[in-house]
């Protein structure tokens, strides 16, 4: 499958060659793209602007594009805030997103491999059972899932936040499709050398599939970090809030402290910008291959 | 998907690779291994997906407030309650309006961005990254920026500031359903968040269109621009377009985060999931009605998905292969 995904980072011959547009066409093209890009960047700019301003400047009568003096001291404010334990919520998000990603990669990749490669007479029936779950949107099952998780006593716990989300039929399906396209020769060689399925999987298949794992990991991590509905349902007590739930609570607070809220938002986005910049190649590849988030 | 082939053949096949493991491919061993690999996933799938679905269907026939072990069977009472509930029916209207705006808008914007970026000669990667970057932002954070900085109903919001330069009075974007300015807020936040993602899909598809088609068209006298776009690009993107529209519909259907955060105190513009959340986890904790609502929504989305797949020709297969 890796080979079927077009490498988008590769520059193919520009379409202009066949359009024959002159200097004007090219200028217009860059102008349109540039204006669109500026519009897309405005929200990012607003976060940074508001995070580094004082409240009187933000709410002032005249609009200021830049702070008169940059308030670096704002950076610590979300952590000093007594109404929301922001540091705790950040930590919760780190734990949840990392374990969510690791768990999904492990469980879904193994299942995908089993379904793709291990002969078993009822494998098709099992596969259909997985396919059926793709038809039921997980967001709609949150009510019964909550009922189940609360009767297990997992509300307000990492278990409740992480475990129910690990069994993604879609990710399993993607891994199965990927492993169907994995070259069999490599595994055959491993088996001739005396490795079982287990050994072949861990020592041959996984090390040779790291690109695909990285693509799925990037998408899964972003989804885990940005998830809101389930953490909102499970995080009844503020100590179990993830950073998204904490951000949401700022919006309903009685007192609005603009620079604090935007600094918190900036801090919550920062890890993903890093993930994004470093892993963009896999992210793009993963989307082009799978066509879906989560 | 092949199920039967050479099992238990004792020789390693050196040249032509057989489809099943020749050496240890004993039936018992592969059955064991199959369950070893799929067992953890399937166990979880049963416990956290199938059981909740079943439980939901079961609960939907009972009177279940504040309890998950109900005793009073009410038949289709919960369904009747849900379907006659004004809020729930309004939420379906909200979803329909929302989908009617967001699906075509995202389709057009992401395709437009893809066409732009694909034609660039320099800085292509830079612009692609700029449009793609919002994918990393959560709906909660985006809702926060939209609500508190762009579409703030007071003078220091960006939208009202810009309008003020042209002498337009402050607009209460979210605080008032009439005129329904809140739709502009709701639609633009999602457009910003998801267009870059679908742009990537369109760029991938655009680069898969054989260049010979364009050459042939120009020999046949097709003018570059609208004609080629209409008769070559658009038809070639059909499979991707179908997939994108399907994904957009499903995503719109599951909208929760931005509505919940932007319209937290409002009574208008509540989509189905927000209504479900209030019904089952709000003050009444009515799990019975909530479950009935979940069943209704699930059936609806299945019907919509199947219908759309039937009408437009399900494009995923062609796309992923």
TrEMBL record, chain A:
It is found in: Cell membrane. Its main location: membrane. Keywords: Cell membrane, Membrane, Transmembrane, Transmembrane helix, Transport. GO terms for biological process: transmembrane transport. InterPro entries: MetI-like (IPR000515), MetI-like_sf (IPR035906). Residues 1-20 are annotated as: Disordered. Residues 1-12 have a biased composition (Polar residues). GO terms for cellular component: plasma membrane. Residues 90-279 form the ABC transmembrane type-1 domain. It is a multi-pass membrane protein. The chain crosses the membrane at residues 28-48, 90-114, 126-149, 161-179, 258-279. Belongs to the binding-protein-dependent transport system permease family. This is Sugar ABC transporter permease. The lineage of its organism: Bacteria, Bacillati, Actinomycetota, Actinomycetes, Kitasatosporales.
TrEMBL record, chain B:
GO terms for cellular component: plasma membrane. Signal peptide: none annotated. PROSITE patterns: ABC_TM1. One of its GO terms (biological process) is transmembrane transport. Gene3D superfamilies: MetI-like. It comes from the Bacteria. Its main location: membrane. InterPro entries: ABC_transporter_permease, MetI-like, MetI-like_sf. Residues 1-22 are annotated as: Disordered. It is a multi-pass membrane protein. The chain crosses the membrane at residues 32-55, 92-118, 125-146, 181-206, 237-256, 287-307. Keywords: Cell membrane, Membrane, Transmembrane, Transmembrane helix, Transport. Belongs to the binding-protein-dependent transport system permease family. PANTHER family: ABC TRANSPORTER PERMEASE PROTEIN (PTHR30193), DIACETYLCHITOBIOSE UPTAKE SYSTEM PERMEASE PROTEIN NGCF (PTHR30193:SF41). This is Sugar ABC transporter permease. It comes from Streptomyces tuirus.
